[in-house]
Amino acid sequence: MWSADSATGALTPTWINTNGIHTVTSLVLVPGSSAIVLVGDVGIFEATYSTGTQVSFTLTNISS
Question: In the chain, what are the domain boundaries?
Answer without folding.
Answer: 2-58
